[in-house]
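Hi F.,

I've been meaning to write this up properly since the lab meeting, where we talked about keeping a consistent format for the predictions we share between groups. The idea is simple: the sequence comes first, exactly as it goes in, then the structure tokens exactly as they come out, then a line or two of notes. No screenshots and no reformatting. I'm using this chain as the first example so we have something concrete to point to.
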Amino acid sequence: MKNKNYSFSIGKGRCSALCAVLLSLSMLSGCGNSDMDSLILSKDVTYTGIEQETTEVEKGDISPVFEQMIELQGVEETTYRVEKDKVEDLEYIYKAELDQVLVSVGDRVNAGETMVTFKSETLDKELKERQNKKSEAVLKKEHLLRLMEIDTNLDFTDDIAILDEEIRLANVQIADVQNTYNSINIIAEKDGVVKYINPSVQDGFLVVGSPMITVSNDDGYYIMDMMGDDSTASEGDAKLVSTDVDFCIGDVYTAKSYMSEYKVEVIPKPGTDISDASATDAAEAGESGIYDGKVYFKLVGDDALKEQFLTVYIELPENKNALYVDRKAVISSPKGDFVYKQYDNEFIATRIVKGEEVGQYVIIKEGLEEGDVVSMSE
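Output, unedited:
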């Protein structure tokens, strides 16, 4: 797009400027533009005497690309840490130290799965004692059973019963030690995906009070707000977003973030209590996925919710040999759209019929020709 600056000056005072406006209004009235008279100034006098920014109307093939940011929502995170009182127990009661980190960022974990282990001198010693006692009882029982097989006159039933009780107690004690180990290890409380691991923990150092591991649940989804953020988006921005693409349930699009590329699928609004079968039926029927100006997406083929923001990219059909101009040159009014077109050193209001908006450009259907110079309204 060719943008350039155009400078001109009239310099005949307010009276002259007003006369020029009135004259132009009467000229427009005579040219069949009376419906515009009460709505706009016939001349662009805003920039009189200062540098005027202009742009040229161009013609050619223009390829629209829909781009819109989507934001991760509906994610609950569980953060695991070791507080000071637990560290004291680890050090003084269990004589324990950090052992292994069994997961990596992006791994899926299930509730009850061990993520970080500690090695305890006290618990290891007790566990070994209980396991040895059980092994001895098992060996004694097997020996007595063999003797009874050899000599049927021998009866060690009472002795075997005592050994069975010793084995049972040993199993209970071994389970207690293992449960105690689980109480000091870091165990996943819920299903989810590992989102963060403290680098110090990965290097084998215990971090007191700080987050060690963060796990996100699987229920996350992305939202595209087609009406934009009211604090930042203008009415034109909202219209640009909302009129380019029809989103239907089941549609799959490309979404990017930095160097990563994903596939995202349009889904029914979370919380609408729609079954998987119903969602499939909706996709087959091409049901709209737009709910109150919002579209909901899930990642396809990737369980880990890695990015807070993604940008959806959609290539739209190419407009061949289209006439187009920078959208900042177009001014909208209740009775239609117009631009200020250059005639010599003046910019005269000219009605246009515009087509679709393609990024920063607007396709012109009527009212302008290739090479026309118009002023930029913003």
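Notes:
Residues 1-35, 229-243 have pLDDT under 50 and may be disordered.
The CA atoms of residues 65 and 268 lie 24 Å apart.

If this format works for you, I'll send the rest the same way.

G.
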